[in-house]
Amino acid sequence: MRKALLVIDMQEATVGKNHADFFKYDTALLKKVNNVINNTDADLVVYIRNLMKNNFINKFAPVKVFDGTSDSELVKDLQVVSSNIFSKYSGDAFTNENFSDFMKTNHIDTIEIIGLDGGGCVSLTAFGALKNGYRVILNTSAIGTMFNTKKEKYYEKLKKLGAEFL
After folding, report:
1. pLDDT per position in the chain (166 positions), as tens?
2. What is the DSSP string of the chain?
3. 125, exposed or middle or buried, with CB in 10 Å at 0-12, 13-18, 19+?
4. Alpha-carbon span 1 to 43, nearest angstrom
5. Is the pTM here over 0.85, yes or no?
6. Where are the domains of the chain?
7. Computed from CA positions of residues 45, 50, 53, 59, in that sequence, does the dihedral angle turn out positive or negative?
8. Do 48 and 125 meet the contact criterion of CB atoms below 8 Å apart?
9. Which fold does the domain 3-165 belong to in CATH?
10. How many CB atoms lie within 10 A of CB 161?
11. Alpha carbons within 13 A on the beta-carbon side of 2
12. Which of 13, 60, 103, 139, CA to CA, is 20 to 30 A from 48?
């Protein structure tokens, strides 16, 4: 059995010192995420960045997380213990074929997920992992959520599909 710890969307735009006003996460979340990273039993730690396509419509978005901008970078004080960093343009990290291939190449069968947001990308990536045959663990001690109603709905579905919760 090989396990990967996925650290989802812990970026400057969401939890950095100058994060967008829209994002209101627990100020202790970064410390909780770092604690999980520092104490993981996973074989691999993988970081996922959420990006926006740099197109006409997104130029009017209140938050602009385009590749190459400071907002798109992993948050400054995050424990980065590997160079396994992938980007995604939708909620489910498995939509990135390079990431999906990386997980297969490294013979990962179990995925533990932490980061942002329980009512968005964390749950959507968990659905993608289950669809691709992985055992999924959501470590709720280090998952931030702004979208509580969606989180509850998603977590209920994930439990029915066999996801585990810590």
Report:
1. 899 999 999 988 887 776 666 667 667 899 999 999 999 999 999 999 987 677 667 566 556 665 677 677 898 999 999 999 999 988 999 999 999 999 999 999 999 999 999 999 999 999 999 999 999 999 999 999 988 899 999 999 999 999 999 9
2. --EEEEEE--BHHHHSTT--TT----TTHHHHHHHHHHT---SEEEEEEE----STGGGGSSS---TTSGGGSBPTTS----S-EEEESSS-GGGSHHHHHHHHHTT--EEEEEEE-TTTHHHHHHHHHHHTT-EEEEEEEEEE-S-HHHHHHHHHHHHHTT-EE-
3. buried
4. 9
5. yes
6. 3-165
7. negative
8. yes
9. Rossmann fold (3.40.50)
10. 12
11. 10
12. 60
Tokens 């590997």 belong to residue: 82
Retrieve residue 20's tokens: 């967008």
Count of beta carbons in the 10 Å neighbourhood of residue 139 = 20
Q: What DSSP letter does each residue of 43-64 carry, written as one string?
A: SEEEEEEE----STGGGGSSS-
